[in-house]
Amino acid sequence: MKNESDQERADRNFVELLQGARVAVTGVQVLFAFLLTVPFSTGFARMDQADRWLYYAALISAAVASICYIAPTAQHRVLFRQGRKETLVRRSNLYGIAGALALVVSMTTSTMFVIDYLFEATLAWVTAGLLAAFALWTWFGQAALDRQGEADPRDQSADGSSVSSSEDSRE
């Protein structure tokens, strides 16, 4: 935004990061809660060692995703009024990316775990691979291409030349 101070931009960016995390954290918490109940079900004892390792990967990655998505709020409390908002914004962005990667692992391994139990290992591997590829593409791949590719149409001046602001380069 024009005429926005560095502090105002950091405040706005932090609020935007937290809004994005709110969307993901609910799903992570539901998945994590479900995974915590699985070993107490009657069928879990019949699981083979490979399925137990899938479950382990799903559970731990859901815990990691939860930690990453909650970290910015906890750190904000610790750093409150310390003048470190820009540091917190940068760190929170990294936690958001790490949380999303952990969520991809948890969703993929959870799905693989269930499909392997219901059907067969081949279908589970294929489905998990497709889900992982889809998530990685929609969450990261397209955005990475946008960062490297064409300039945003809003950054084009009337004569078609690229216009960038120092504000955009810092977000």
TrEMBL record:
Keywords: Membrane, Transmembrane, Transmembrane helix. It comes from Nonomuraea maheshkhaliensis. Signal peptide: none annotated. It holds the Pfam family DUF6328. Residues 158-171 have a biased composition (Low complexity). This is Amine oxidase. Coiled coil: none annotated. Residues 150-171 are annotated as: Disordered. The chain crosses the membrane at residues 21-41, 53-72, 93-115, 121-140. InterPro entries: DUF6328 (IPR046291).
